[in-house]
Design a protein that fits this description.
Helix content is about 80%, strand content about 10%. By secondary structure, the protein is mainly α. The chain has a single domain, classed as Helix Hairpins, CATH 1.10.287. It has a two-stranded antiparallel ribbon. Helix 1 runs antiparallel to helix 2.
């Protein structure tokens, strides 16, 4: 019984670590997008990297694409934060159960 709970706790902790790493990646991407939007506002011309080349792009289209990406990443980040909170709560409950025995 206790071994099952320990295994379950280990699984939750691994899942928590995975979610935490994903959350950090999304936060980093959001910072990059915010920086790109700030720089885009300062310039009259815009470029997009496609493969190994840089191609001139419509500034408004690029801004729209970046804002859409920002929305998607923000939504995904909220989901990851909720998952992280749930895993933390589950881990705490299991730790308490294990310590009682």
């Amino acid at each position: 019984m206790s071994e099952d709970k320990i295994r379950q706790l280990n699984f939750i902790e691994q899942s928590l670590q995975s979610v935490f790493m994903q959350r950090q990646q999304f936060q980093a991407q959001l910072v990059e997008i915010d920086s790109a939007l700030i720089e885009l506002a300062k310039t009259n011309s815009a470029y997009r990297i496609i493969g190994n080349i840089m191609v001139a792009s419509n500034k408004e289209d690029l801004k729209k694409d970046l804002e859409e990406k920002k929305e998607v990443f923000s939504a995904r980040l909220k989901v990851l934060e909720k998952q992280e909170a749930k895993f933390r709560e589950d881990a705490q409950m299991l730790q308490k159960e294990i310590m009682k025995k």
